[in-house]
Amino acid sequence: MLQSLAGQEVFTLAEGEGSSRLFVHCSLARHESLIPLARALPPARNIYFDMPGHGRSAEWNGSDYQTDVVDIAAQLLDGPAHLIGHSFGATVALRLAAERPDLVSRLTLIEPVMFAAATDPEAIETHRAAFAAFVKAWTEGDRETAAKLFVAMWGTGPAWDDLPAKMRAMLAAQIHLIPAASAAIEDDVHGVLGKLDRVTCPVDLIEGSNSQPIMSAILDGLAGALPQAQRSVIEGAGHMVPITHIAQVASVLQGR
């Protein structure tokens, strides 16, 4: 259903009973991307939403994208929950856990693109060089090229030209949401990394073995700052590991 949350019209869904789990999808996706993972886990009250500008939610109309998504997530919870976030969604879950630890009983960060947490200068420089072409395309107003480059780096693998025309158009239309969140994840403008000592719940840090090199550097930084962090690498997986390797991710979450 559509709800008005944090000044946005947001599609939300809750199913099941028991303790709560909140799933936060990645950029340019929608809540359905994480439903198969949710259903591979033991029964619970699973809560999902489409971030503004995604899925069945309305277009984003705010001024700080990550802040709006964090506020939406917080308003969907009425008590401690297991937060499971993927990619940008994981940065949302991380910030919510740091700012509202009372709402988080367990935190699962799958391929969190919190670039500001990376501590390896070489990995950081490699990331910036790889992303420079995207920045150039976006700056020049070439939305389709920007979307093509972004999907090549962070998508599930199919070549841009093999995607349906409707999907390519949708991705190009949404691509402005990537730079809208850049200050939060590249520069940590909200000071999340300075609050990680507040996250005292169990934390799962999950990455794919074939993901971008920057990801291991990000998890190195987070693992050193989060008191109860446990790392897992899913062999043969890339950035979209919760979609392509559901059973392996579910096994990690059930094995702790």
Rounded to an integer in angstroms, the radius of gyration calculated over CA atoms is 17 Å
Helix content: 40-55%
Q: What would you call the shape?
A: globular
**Sheet/helix structural class:** alpha/beta
**What is the element string, with H for helices and E for strands?**
EEEHEHEHEHHHHHEHEHH
| Total number of distinct structural domains | 2
- By DSSP (H or I, 4+ residues per run), the number of helices equals 11
CATH class of the largest domain: Alpha Beta
Q: Catalogue the unreliable spans.
A: none
The portion of residues forming beta strands comes to 15-25%
Q: What fold name goes in the CATH topology slot of the largest domain? A: Rossmann fold
Any guess at the CATH architecture of the largest domain? 3-Layer(aba) Sandwich
* CATH superfamily label of the largest domain: Alpha/Beta hydrolase fold, catalytic domain
The rounded distance between the terminal residues' Cα atoms is 33 Å
Q: Mean pLDDT, nearest integer? A: 96
Q: Would you count the extended β strands for me? A: 8
Describe the largest sheet.
8 strands, mixed
Protein name: Acyl-CoA esterase
Pfam family, one: Abhydrolase_1
Organism: Octadecabacter ascidiaceicola
InterPro entries: AB_hydrolase_1, AB_hydrolase_fold, AB_hydrolase_sf
